[in-house]
Each structure stands twice: as structure tokens, then as C-alpha cells.
Specification:
Helix content is 42%, strand content 23%. The chain is an alpha/beta fold. The longest helix has 16 residues. The structure holds adenosine-5'-diphosphate and guanosine-5'-monophosphate. The site of guanosine-5'-monophosphate has 13 residues, from strand 5 and strand 6.
Length: 193
């Protein structure tokens, strides 16, 4: 049987990575993470090949020229992120459930490409103020980068209606359970979109 693609999008700091990590740790559904390529530098604690394939701008451009991406976006000025064909195509053919942590434009694009083989989930913050608070608490970005991410969030929230489902990440455990349930129901064929 063919596998599925799970698209998880949200403005930066809404808790996508935390939710994906928790669902993978719970082990109720066997998710394979699609490791994207990016030319942004690694944050403390990030590992090449695990969180991202960290590449130079030249390497990213070469991958575009070689048609290695399903999609890619310049998510922030000069910062490119892309979903590699090698991370998803063969895995879905093998029957695996592949999860993508991807920006809103990329998410909409992948859903268009894969149709009912893909489930798109939008993680919403309880409020924009709480989002800023979480980004400050995460302490991985400069004050300038946080301002940039928060102002972009207001624009990105406009894409939420284009997703198959929306989950508010207010209480983490509830958001994890809700997201996990959507993934299990979709991948077992109980729910289609
Ligand atoms: P994203 O991957 O969407 O950029 P993260 O998963 O890195 O976001 O989460 C941003 C910050 O918010 C992290 O410090 C994380 O621990 C925290 N966080 C995530 N979910 C919640 C929640 N429900 N309540 C409070 N803090 C949260
Ligand atoms: P961060 O720098 O916080 O890891 O990610 C910034 C943004 O880029 C997030 O919204 C994340 O979902 C998005 N992103 C990560 N990988 C990809 C990708 O392969 N394609 C696209 N379009 N966005 C991505």
C-alpha cells in the first residue's frame, strides 16, 4: 500500500517542531521526518542530516538546478528552505508516513501536488502576543529575527483556511493528541480530505 504525506505548517514559534517531536516520541504512529535542505546556519543543538541538511547558498542553488526539490521557498530574505524529492518520493512508495515541517506557501504547494495522498494541518497560536512570548522563551533568535518572525506570522495566519485541518496549540498535550488523532485517522483511511 502507498504511504501518506503529512504537512504541518504554522508561523515560526507556534510549536510545530515540538508537536512533531512529541508525536514521534509517543510512538502511536510511525512517522518519518522529511529532512529539508536550508542555507540558514544551524542553531545550537541542531544536527546536520537530522534537523536539516545544512548547505551553502551555492549548494542550495545547485540542488535547484539539478531539480532535486519538490518545492522550495525563500522563507526569510536570503534564507532558502526546500523539500528534497529524495526525502519523500521513495518513502511514500514504500508505504511510509512522511511528515513535513514546512512554511505556509510550501505546504499549500505540496497539498496541490499530492492531493488526497497528503493531509495538511495548520497549527495556530492562541494569540500573536503568546507567539512572541514563546519565541522569546525559546531564545534561539535575535530580537530582530523575532520581530521579523512575528510580523510575518500575521500574514501567514491568512493561509490557515487553505489547510485541511487546524489545531490550536494552547495546551501542548491537547494539541499533540488532536494532531496525532488526525494523522492516525487519515493514514488508516478512516478520514479523507
Ligand atoms: P516552531 O517549530 O513552530 O517554530 P517550536 O516547536 O520551536 O516552534 O516552539 C516554540 C517555543 O514554544 C519552544 O520554546 C516550545 O518549547 C514552546 N512551546 C511549544 N508549544 C507550547 C505550548 N503549548 N505552550 C507553551 N509553550 C510552548
Ligand atoms: P526555522 O528556521 O525556524 O527552522 O524554519 C523557518 C520556516 O521554514 C518554518 O516555517 C519551517 O516550517 C519552514 N521550512 C522548513 N523546511 C522547509 C521546506 O523544506 N520548505 C519550505 N517551503 N519551508 C520549510
Amino acid at each position: 500500500m502507498k504511504g501518506k504525506i503529512i504537512i504541518i505548517s504554522a508561523p515560526s514559534g507556534c510549536g510545530k517542531s515540538t508537536i512533531i517531536r512529541e508525536i514521534m516520541a509517543r510512538g502511536n504512529v510511525d512517522l518519518k521526518f522529511s529532512v529539508s535542505a536550508t542555507n540558514r546556519p544551524p542553531r545550537e543543538g541542531e544536527t546536520n542530516g537530522v534537523n536539516y541538511h545544512f548547505v551553502s547558498t551555492e549548494e542550495f542553488r545547485a540542488a535547484i538546478a539539478n531539480d532535486e526539490f519538490v518545492e522550495y521557498e525563500e522563507v526569510y530574505p536570503g534564507r532558502f528552505y526546500g523539500t528534497l524529492k529524495s526525502e519523500i518520493i521513495q518513502r511514500v512508495e514504500k508505504g511510509e508516513i512522511v511528515v513535513l515541517d514546512i512554511d505556509v506557501k510550501g505546504g499549500v504547494r505540496v497539498k496541490e501536488l499530492f492531493g488526497n495522498e497528503a493531509l495538511s494541518i495548520y497549527i495556530l497560536p492562541p494569540s500573536v502576543e503568546e507567539l512572541r512570548h514563546r519565541l522569546e522563551g525559546r531564545a534561539t533568535d535575535s530580537a530582530e529575527a523575532i520581530d521579523q518572525r512575528v510580523s510575518k506570522a500575521e500574514y501567514e495566519l491568512g493561509f490557515a483556511p487553505e489547510y485541511d485541518c487546524r489545531v490550536v496549540n494552547d495546551r501542548l498535550e491537547k494539541a499533540v493528541e488532536e494532531t496525532e488523532r488526525l494523522i492516525i485517522d487519515f493514514s488508516s483511511g478512516k478520514q479523507t480530505f
